[in-house]
Amino acid sequence: MNVLLMPLRLYYRRLEPALDRLPFDLVALLARIVLGSVFFRSALTKVDGFSIAQSTFFLFEHEYALPLISPVLAAWLATLAEFGLSLLLWAGLATRLAALGLLLMTLVIQTFVYPDAWVTHGLWATGLLTLLLRGPGALSLDRLLSRLLGRQVSAA
Q1: What's the family (predicted)?
Q2: pLDDT tens, per residue, the chain with 156 residues
Q3: Of the four listed, 27, 54, 122, 153, which is most buried by Cβ atoms within 10 Å?
């Protein structure tokens, strides 16, 4: 019986505390890069050069058909949000606001557009909630600006 408990002891006494000491910063950077890429690549499918593709307007009118908002406005908002919020995630600038915006977009997609894709949307939501609750990590413009502004405030 003692031999069977050894792996559990090793896990709880050694491995788990060692993992708790690893920095979150690289995980946050990876989350920002991957999630930003998902939405940026989606935005690329909505444009033709520097304008929104006609197929995007068709999709928003016939396949997505969101309630309470015109398809043209929804197409513009979704495209701009996917581009802009992805860039903010990549830069680590206003990361929590960008994550919140993409999380809301994910909830709309899950609820009104593709309700059967809950596993994919759940993965996106998990990563976005992690960034929303834990922040962008040290490798971000948010951290740099926070330090710069913190110094100015304390120096004043």
Answers
A1: Belongs to the DoxX family.
A2: 688 889 999 999 999 999 999 999 999 999 999 999 999 999 999 999 999 999 999 999 999 989 999 999 999 999 999 999 999 999 999 999 999 999 999 999 999 999 999 999 999 999 999 999 999 999 999 999 999 988 654 444
A3: 27
d(C-alpha 23, C-alpha 67), whole Å? 43
Q: What does the chain come to in residues?
A: 156
CA distance 139 to 124: 21
Is residue 126 a contact partner of residue 31, using CB atoms and an 8 Å limit? no
At position 50, the amino acid (one-letter code) is F
Q: What is the identity of the amino acid at 43?
A: A
Q: Is the pTM of this model over 0.85?
A: yes
Q: Is 89 exposed, middle or buried (0-12, 13-18, 19+ CB in 10 A)?
A: buried
Q: Is the dihedral of CA 132, 19, 33, 41 positive or negative?
A: negative
Q: Quote the number of domains for the chain.
A: 1
